[in-house]
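Folding Problem: From Residues to Backbone Shape
Fields: amino acid sequence; protein backbone structure tokens
RECORD BEGINS BELOW THIS LINE
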Amino acid sequence: MIAPLYKLGMLGHAGMIVVALLVGASFGYILQAVGMGNSRKISAVFYGKDWAVMRIMFSAVVTAMVLTYVSYYLGILDISLVQLSGLNMTGQIVGGLLLGAGMVVGGY
């Protein structure tokens, strides 16, 4: 979402790094504060016992969608400058298998 500001010259390289660090740290803090870093909570999703993690992630996706479209309609964001990467299904499958294997090895 910040990339159009870089392309338009509103943010430089250092500004992009600062924004990325602030957004990443904020997102990580919020996820940790609501308990998303708890391995038992994450594994409970796989066992079908606790869907709190899925509700939180779904809420985050919907919030990002709404804010993207609102900023587009208010003229803050030019959608044509936003780059969408293609889906690499092989990478998704390999990454999911590695994550699952890591959770199994870790005993979660």
